Amino acid sequence: MDDTDRKIVKALQEDSSGSMRQISRITGVALTTVHSRLRALKEKGVIRRYTLDIDHDKLGYHVLAIVNVTIGYDFVRKTGTTQNELVQLFMQEDEVEEAFSVTGETDIILKVRARGIDDLNNYLIGQVRKLPGVTKTVTQVVLYEGRKQSINKPSA
């Protein structure tokens, strides 16, 4: 990716609903160049999809939590289930926004949205902790979510 690609991607990250003409105007890149660069970025898999930035609070999901899940080694050994397969299982849950297989003291990290603390508690106790193989969970409720949605800034 060069600086022109980065400018185009940054404009899309700011507002993916913008037309090619708007992207051209914002970036100062010719319309035909924007069109060909976007096509190339899609073909290369740099741009996988266009998505929405949702205000979860306005939808009634007021709690965001990070859940660290520890899986027992015996479970993994007996079943042959991988951490990545468990991540995919968690991703099927409505409450889970993102899930990661990680190294360290925990095996899986979940980003969970809930309407309130009671709903979060019910999800953790009623679903996560009942899953075979889960030996421990540690949950942190997010107080503030700072988000960065841009790639490295183009050089001047």
State the main characteristics.
156 residues; alpha+beta; Alpha-Beta Plaits; 2 domains; four-stranded antiparallel beta sheet; 6 helices; 4 strands; 39% helix; 19% strand
- Largest sheet properties: 4 strands, antiparallel
| CATH topology annotation of the largest domain | Alpha-Beta Plaits
CATH superfamily of the largest domain: Lrp/AsnC effector binding domain/regulation of amino acid metabolism (RAM) domain
Beta-strand percent range: 15-25%
Strand order of the largest sheet: 2-3-1-4
Shape: elongated
Separation of termini? Answer: 15 Å
Q: What do these coordinates show?
A:
By secondary structure, this protein is α+β, with helices and mostly antiparallel strands. It has 2 domains: 3-43; 56-141, Lrp/AsnC effector binding domain/regulation of amino acid metabolism (RAM) domain (Alpha-Beta Plaits). The protein contains 6 helices and 4 strands. Strands 2-3-1-4 form a 4-stranded antiparallel β-sheet. The model has no long low-confidence stretch (mean pLDDT 91).
Short characterization:
The chain has 6 helices and 4 strands. With 156 residues, it is of the alpha+beta class.
